[in-house]
Write a structure and sequence with these properties.
The chain is an all-alpha fold. Among the domains are: 2-77, no CATH class; 108-320, Leucine-rich Repeat Variant, CATH 1.25.10; 429-594, no CATH class. The protein is built from 29 helices and 2 strands. Helix 9 packs parallel to helix 11 (247-263), helix 17 (365-380) packs antiparallel against helix 18 and helix 24 runs antiparallel to helix 25. It is found in: Nucleus.
Length: 693
């Protein structure tokens, strides 16, 4: 018996296993299997964490055969000592995130296969219950895929390793399509009112969400394909509610999204803005100030150069900025006040210090686009009182910008500023003295002066602020000026045509238009202005007739407002004329923007029906060339006529007319204008399926 005890002591020293002493430490049964079993049971009650550690890492230490007595151990001590010796397994140190994982489920380490991805995907689609282990495993697999995409050698230090493009694509596709729904189901967001932080299991998945969102932002930063970027932005829009829970992650996401919003392709821009809007709304008190400031700086930075290709993007940024500023007008007031004040300081310096540098600080696209932004914003929220005090200072800045350098070269800038004033006056229902800025052009510029250069088309002022001296000598300059004056005068007078003071407002403009008609000898210019003058005078007579019927005092503002509303509802001659003209003008602009004439030339041509056997065959191409063919002939047959056979077969004529009609229908079916407006129809990006991938 003594020998057995000694061998066990030697064995315990060799294994360095923990021995739990008992109260009777001097007895011989201290190290027997039964005593050791009781000690471990006591350990399970006193220190369960250490007991679980032993159970996970070395189960052999806890499994003793109680029935095997001392004789069994004494019989083969020398022969089977190596087999009986306890050998502890390797220890594993889990991360802090393992504290929230299930104890009984441990993922398999090693290389990820498509079979494993398919199993995880099925677990994510489980309708009954989503396990935390499944979510953490999928997030770790996504991290392994990101390590493969970002690291040079593709080596992963985590539990999983992604090899091959097919496995990488499968992991990304699984996360994009099925992970948002699984997380929502696991958290039970339907019961918590769609707020993740109020969910019961939020603390368990919090660290894993941070890891996943960080990896997703890294993936967004490394993608160059527009199609893949569109898919990932849709996925980020679904995950935006979780992004807003972490301020640090939200700031990183907004920084990347602002880049996509300002420089991306059209679809990418829209998706990036929707993500910005959703993240900001979920953390509005903490993020709105930062987002407004960053978006304003990004807008000014990217509107420095204006061209027909960049103009749609600038318009989209301006409209989306108006949407963001409308979220909280009390917060927006501070930003808008400071920016308008900054514009006023630049303008004051240019007026006081007459230098080229100061004038260039005002007469540039960044300054003009900033004015356009604030005019659109104040017009959009004019029915609310928060930003109404800023209308007057903005109008003063715009009008003094026109007066800074009132020369012929800056007529395009003048027209841009007048457009802002007309829009702001219409939306805010405020009278602004705009007509003098337009009639001044008619009285100060000599339209009878002969031009030195000939241009085929009028100049386009939409993307120009300043004209070169060579452009002032072209006939296209005068044509463009007359067209813009006609359009702006008609628009402004139509907006004011229902007011009770319309005859008095337009009196000076009518006198100056008559002077212009007397002095100008160019029939094309006088024709347009005479038509405008007749419509203004007709509307003035209409208002005077209606004014003679009223019986209330001119100081009764409520009655005047009601009268003007009734006149506007009834309709005025000038407003009716303007609406008809506007429809035609809008169609012409759309054709010009979409280049319908060029597209129509590339339309597929319809084959002519085959002639019957009794029909007369077409003549051979032996005659001379006809320089001016008839309009009914097709472009392909301009050179297929004979001198002595001028009348084609009647059936061929019908086929040609039919073809022309079909071509016109096809031309009308071409989309004419991109729709950059964003309507709030709920979560429009959530409908995301496998077909989108």
């Amino acid at each position: 018996m003594v020998k057995t005890v000694t061998m066990k002591e030697k064995r315990v020293k060799k294994n360095k296993s923990p021995v739990i002493p008992t109260e009777n430490s001097d007895s011989d049964d201290e190290l027997s299997p039964e005593t050791h079993k009781k000690s471990l049971e006591k350990l399970k009650n006193t220190d369960p964490d250490f007991y679980n550690f032993l159970e996970e890492n070395d189960e052999n230490l806890l499994n003793f055969d109680v029935d095997s007595g001392d004789d069994a151990s004494e019989k083969g001590d020398d022969d089977d000592e190596d087999d009986k010796v306890h050998k502890p397994g390797p220890l594993q140190g889990d991360s802090d995130e393992s504290d929230f994982e299930d104890e009984d489920a441990k993922p398999v380490q090693g290389k990820i296969t498509l079979k494993m991805v398919a199993q995880w995907q099925a677990d994510l689609q489980n309708e009954t219950k989503i396990k935390l282990t499944t979510l953490t495993t999928v997030i770790k697999a996504f991290n392994a895929a990101m390590v493969r995409a970002t690291s040079e050698d593709g080596a992963s230090e985590g539990e999983y390793k992604v090899e091959g493009s097919s496995v990488f694509n499968a992991v990304i596709q699984m996360c994009v399509l099925y992970l948002p729904g699984a997380i929502r189901k696991y958290l039970g967001m339907e019961q918590s009112g769609k707020d993740p932080q109020k969910c019961k299991h939020y603390t368990k998945i919090k660290t894993h969400l941070i890891s996943y969102l960080s990896d997703l932002l890294k993936l967004l930063g490394g993608v160059t394909s527009e199609n893949i970027l569109t898919v990932l932005l849709k996925h980020l829009h679904q995950m935006s509610i979780y992004v807003a829970c972490f301020i640090r992650i939200a700031k990183q996401a907004l920084k990347k999204l602002l880049t996509f919003w300002s420089t991306g392709e059209e679809t990418v821009r829209v998706l990036a803005f929707l993500c910005i809007l959703r993240i900001t709304r979920n953390q509005q008190p903490a993020l709105l100030d930062l987002v407004l400031k960053a978006m304003c700086l990004t807008y000014v930075k990217n509107c420095k150069f204006v061209s027909p290709s960049t103009w749609p993007g600038i318009n989209f940024m301006r409209r989306s900025l108006v949407e963001m500023f409308s979220l909280d007008l009390n917060v927006s007031y501070q930003h808008v006040f400071l920016y308008i004040r900054q514009l006023a300081i630049h303008l004051r310096n240019a007026i006081v210090v007459q230098k080229i540098e100061n004038r260039q600080a005002v007469y540039n696209w960044q300054f003009v686009n900033s004015l356009h932004l604030w005019a659109d914003l104040l017009g959009a929220v004019s029915h609310k009182p928060q930003l109404q005090p800023l209308i007057y200072p903005l109008v003063m800045v715009i009008t003094n910008t026109i007066k800074l350098v009132p020369t012929h070269q800056y007529y395009p800038l003048r027209f841009h500023c007048v457009e802002m004033l007309i829009h702001l006056s219409k939306e805010s229902n405020t009278f602004m003295p705009i007509l003098p800025f337009l009639t001044e052009v008619l009285t100060t510029f000599d339209f009878n002066k002969k031009h030195k250069k000939v241009s085929m088309k009028p100049l386009d002022f939409s993307c120009i602020l300043r004209l070169a001296k060579s452009q002032l000598m072209e006939n296209g300059f005068k044509d463009s000026v007359i067209e813009r004056l006609y359009a702006l005068l008609l628009e402004y007078t139509a907006n004011e045509s229902h007011t009770i003071a319309f005859p008095d407002i337009t009196l000076l403009a009518v006198i100056q238009l008559k002077q212009f008609l007397k002095s100008c000898s160019v029939s094309n210019y006088t024709k347009k202005m005479r038509q405008l003058l007749e419509k203004i005078e007709e509307n003035s007579k209409f208002i005077e007739r209606e004014r003679s019927k009223i019986s209330f005092a001119i100081s009764d503002e409520k009655m005047i407002t009601a009268w003007e509303t009734s006149i506007r509802t009834k309709g005025t001659p000038l407003l009716t004329f303007y609406e008809n003209w506007s429809k035609i003008n809008r169609i012409q602009k759309r054709k010009k923007i979409t280049k319908n004439d060029e597209i129509a030339g590339e339309l597929p041509k319809i084959k002519r029906p085959k002639l019957s056997e009794d029909a007369v065959p077409a003549p051979e191409n032996k005659g001379p060339m006809v320089l001016f063919p008839s309009d009914d002939e097709d472009d392909d047959n301009h050179f297929n006529t004979e001198a002595d056979d001028e009348t084609p077969a009647p059936k061929v004529k019908k086929a040609k007319k039919k073809k022309n009609k079909v071509e016109k229908k096809a031309t009308k079916s071409i989309p004419t204008e991109r729709d950059n407006t964003i309507e709030d129809k709920g979560d429009i990006v959530q409908d995301f399926s496998v077909s989108d991938w």
